């Protein structure tokens, strides 16, 4: 698990779209999808419920999202210091 995977996960969760998250993060959609899949594999959990192009946080994803948001806030504070 790394911060780029966490940022990708949170951005997709916030936007509900891999395409929009890729646009906001200025990265490739495929790379972003692979990053999230790698995070899911490492955590052994599906973070999203997938239906066509729609992504909705799973119950595990909802619980993990809060902690990931906290990590990103902490990372930002560390960088500012």
Low-confidence stretches: none
Class from secondary-structure proportions: mainly alpha
How many beta-strand elements? 2
Elements, N to C (H/E): HHHEEH
Level of helix content? over 70%
Order of strands, main sheet, comes to: 1-2
**What's the gyration radius in Å?**
12 Å
Question: In angstroms, what separates the terminal alpha carbons?
Answer: 23 Å
> What count of helical segments does DSSP give?
4
Question: What's the main sheet like?
Answer: 2 strands, antiparallel
Mean pLDDT: 94
Name the shape in a single word. Answer: globular
Q: What share of the residues does DSSP label as strand, in percent? A: 5-15%
Topology at a glance:
Elements: H1 3-15, H2 18-25, H3 29-43, E1 48-51, E2 54-57, H4 59-80
Antiparallel strand pairs: 1-2
List keywords for this structure.
4 helices, 81 residues, globular, 2 strands
Brief characterization of the structure:
The protein is mainly alpha-helical and about 80 residues long.
Written description of the protein model:
- With 81 residues, the protein is mainly alpha-helical.
- 72% of the residues lie in helices and 10% in strands.
- It has four helices and two strands; from the N terminus they run αααββα.
- A two-stranded antiparallel ribbon has the order 1-2.
- A hairpin with a 2-residue loop joins strand 1 (48-51) and strand 2 (54-57).
- Helix 1 crosses helix 2, helix 1 (3-15) crosses helix 3 (29-43) and helix 1 crosses helix 4.
- The longest helix is centred in the last third of the chain and has 22 residues, at 59-80.
- The radius of gyration is 12 Å and the shape is globular.
- It starts with a helix and ends with a helix.
């Amino acid at each position: 698990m790394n911060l780029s995977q966490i940022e990708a996960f949170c951005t997709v969760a916030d936007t509900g779209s891999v395409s929009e998250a890729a646009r906001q993060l200025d990265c490739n959609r495929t790379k972003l999808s692979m990053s999230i899949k790698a995070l899911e594999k490492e955590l052994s959990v599906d973070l999203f419920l997938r239906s066509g192009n729609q992504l909705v946080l799973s119950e595990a994803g909802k619980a993990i999202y809060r902690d990931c948001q906290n990590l990103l806030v902490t990372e930002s504070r560390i960088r500012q210091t």
